[in-house]
Every structure is written in C-alpha cells, then in structure tokens.
Design a protein that fits this description.
Layout lengths: L12 E3 L8 E6 L8 E6 L4 E6 L5 E6 L4 H6 L12 E2 L10 E8 L3 H7 L16 E8 L5 E9 L2
Length: about 160
Amino acid sequence: MDLPIPTHLQAYLKPVGDENTEFEVRGELYCLCGCEEFEVWESNDRQIVKAKCKQCGQEIEIFDSGRHGWNGFVCHDDFLDRSLPFNKYTCSECGQDIFKVSVYISSQGKQDYMEEADDEAFSEDNWVNAFEWISLSLNCKKCSYVENGWLDMETM
C-alpha cells in the first residue's frame, strides 16, 4: 500500500498503527542512526521545522511550507524569509529540549493528485509530496509532557 510519506521523510518516518492508508499516515520520527530523540528547531513561525538527532547530530528537515505540501510543492508558493534565524524549542512544562516527534500527514490521494497536477513536471511517483495537512506532536523526554498539535498546518 502506498502511504503519503513525502520523499524527504521516507527514510525517517516509521508508520505506527494499522490504520494508515493512501489518505493519511501517522508515524514516529527516527534518525538513520536509530535514535528517536531530537532537538526541534523552527523558523518563520513554524513554517520551517527541522529536527537534530540527540545521538549523532544529523539534521532532518521535517517541514518547509515553501517547498512541501500542496502549496509548496505543486503551486511553488514560497513567501518565507529565509534570512530569519532558527529557534530551538523547549518544553513549556520543564524547559528541556529533547523530544520524541510524532507526525501525522493527510493527503487527497494519488488519483486526486494526478487529476489536479496536470503539469509534465508532476509524476505519479511524487504524489506523496503534495500532501494537504501536516501535524507534529512533541513528547518531552524529560517530563513526558506531550504537546499535541505543536505544528498543525493545512498545506493547500
């Protein structure tokens, strides 16, 4: 079954549960080194989000609204100020900065993408990059506080 995991996250997002479909996927972020603990960095009011592995330091771009999702990937709507700095997020309960990252992605599905994105640049293989919604929840590794919907954004 095809899941709507964007190309840039396919190596890092492991689906969780048995309710994932072509239209939605829930998963956990993992580094290639196997670690699931990250610092979370954001810029442009969470329009750009990246994670940095606690163990090996690898940075993983989770979301960039100017390049990912329907508006970024299909419409090329990029209005971000890329000169703005990244800010490291800290837990609102304990102030620590290491999290487990849960990801939810919703999609219109492959067929809808193929009907809407009629440009030659779009192929059936990259429908996963045109998702309609992304949500991130952060689970603090220090105090276990969960911030559901830390990022909750429509991308269409």
